[in-house]
Amino acid sequence: MLHDSGCVGKSMADASIWIALVSMLSVFHITKAKDASGNDIEVPERFGDGIVSQPLPFECSITPRSEAAKELIINNPPIKLDSNPMFYD
């Protein structure tokens, strides 16, 4: 009897997304953007249409959580995909 086992890489993809998300949240404060008077700019509830609905772009504020986080960000720039040892010619 055959059955659909789903995507064999789903668990790895889910874990990779989770690691990326918690890594960002551990070093950044992500909050509402502020206007010139210092008031919060509300995030509009606007979504794109299509097969997968997602929020349309909106303004936000992304700042380092601490000086240590800022140093971590500055001293560890993103790697280039072509320098990733997981990709071979």
From TrEMBL:
Output the Gene Ontology terms for molecular function.
Answer: heme binding; iron ion binding; monooxygenase activity; oxidoreductase activity, acting on paired donors, with incorporation or reduction of molecular oxygen
Q: What is the residue range of the signal peptide feature?
A: 1-33
Name under which the protein is recorded: Uncharacterized protein
Metal-binding listed as a keyword: yes
- Keywords tagged on the record: Heme, Iron, Metal-binding, Monooxygenase, Oxidoreductase, Signal
Q: What is the similarity comment for this entry?
A: Belongs to the cytochrome P450 family.
Co-factor(s): heme
Statement: the UniProt record of this protein carries the keyword Metal-binding = yes
